[in-house]
Amino acid sequence: MISFIVTVKDKKILDAILEMELDKEIFVPYDGMASNEFVKVVETDLGRFIENSLGMCQGEKIVYVGAEIDEKTLEKIVKSSADIACIQRNKRHGLWKFLFHTFIPKTRKFKDPLSPVFSFKREVIGNSISNIITNPFPEIVTHTRYKTMELINYGKIDDSCMGKFRYLLYESKRNGELHRLLKFSIAGITSVIASEILLWFLLIIKIDLIIAGLASIELSILWSFVINDIWTFFDRRKKGILSFITRLIKYNALSIIGLIINVIILIVLSKFFGIGPLTANLIGMGVAFIWNFASNNAWTWLI
Predict the structure, then answer these.
(1) What whole-number distance in Å separates Cα of residue 120 and Cα of residue 14?
(2) What is the pTM of this model?
(3) Do residues 265 and 283 touch, judged by C-beta distance below 8 A?
(4) What's the pLDDT score for residue 91?
(5) Residue range 221-251, pLDDT digits in tens
(6) Of the candidates 87, 70, 65, 59, which has an alpha carbon nearest to the alpha carbon of residue 135?
(7) Among 117, 265, 292, 302, which one is least packed by beta carbons within 10 Å?
(8) Which residues pair with residue 5 across a beta bridge?
(9) Cα(113)–Cα(255) distance, rounded to whole angstroms?
(10) HEC string of 218-267?
């Protein structure tokens, strides 16, 4: 049996599913769609509807339809033999992709971490799904043990931002990535303090300003690297001196790029947009911080 969970209010999709010659059951949250013996109306609240439907499904395969899709693509999803098969929209909002890949690392296998139409085998989820908000896809790929996947390219589908943000915040708290961001921030603050102390000391002993500045910057990078390596990303460290040196080189390179980003934003905002240097520098530091955390999360301490 195949279980269909249909959250999109589209009669054409429902009719297409009903016409499929399959042993099936269909769950919908809308009373107006419950017009056939196969349809079961479970819950009007979307999040609870999805959780309840997953708990009630009897099928060996579950197909989730959360957006309008053509019949041919839907058939590909249904017929796939992979543990997970999903559409991957060719055009996505880059910000959401960036945020999900940064704070929910297990979604990085998918260029579209919020696929609205997908199928999965019942055996891969067990009882591990909870707290569905609007889209169960990131929950499933994050907390299940699947071995095979099939990605099907598709066009752009618009969906709401609030549900994505709520799930991103919830999951990043649950998987520790929000806590990791806090640790990274603390490491950055302490590295600034260490840098300022060294710069002050070197200037007192009459070291050239440029040399003192470069030394304090490098100390700041090394300081924050050590703290992040033994504390922030301790669970991702690979053993061995070669691995340590590789991480250090990567971190240095990304930090220098972050510094360049900071300086460029400072100059552009202050010179061309009339923003005060202190405000422009704060904006540059904020953007550089985002760059440093995201790039090191994705590359230096790669999962």
Answers:
(1) 19
(2) 0.64
(3) yes
(4) 62
(5) 999 999 999 999 999 888 899 999 999 999 9
(6) 65
(7) 302
(8) 27, 64
(9) 27
(10) HHHHHHHHHHHHHHHCHHHCCCCHHHHHHHHHHHHHHHHHHHHHHHHHHH
What tokens appear for 276 in the block?
């005060």
Distance from C-alpha of 79 to C-alpha of 230, rounded to nearest angstrom? 47
Length of the chain as a residue count: 303
Q: Domain 2-174 adopts which CATH fold?
A: Spore Coat Polysaccharide Biosynthesis Protein SpsA; Chain A (3.90.550)
Domain ranges of the chain: 2-174, 177-300
The answer to whether residues 191 and 221 touch, using CB atoms and an 8 Å cutoff, is yes
263 has a pLDDT exceeding 80? yes
Half-sphere exposure of 7 (CA within 13 A, CB side): 26
- State the pLDDT confidence band at 70, using cuts at 50, 70 and 90: confident
Residue whose structure tokens are 């099936």: 24
Read off the pLDDT of residues 10-57 as tens digits, 9 standing for 90 and up: 778 888 888 888 888 888 886 655 556 666 766 667 777 888 888 888
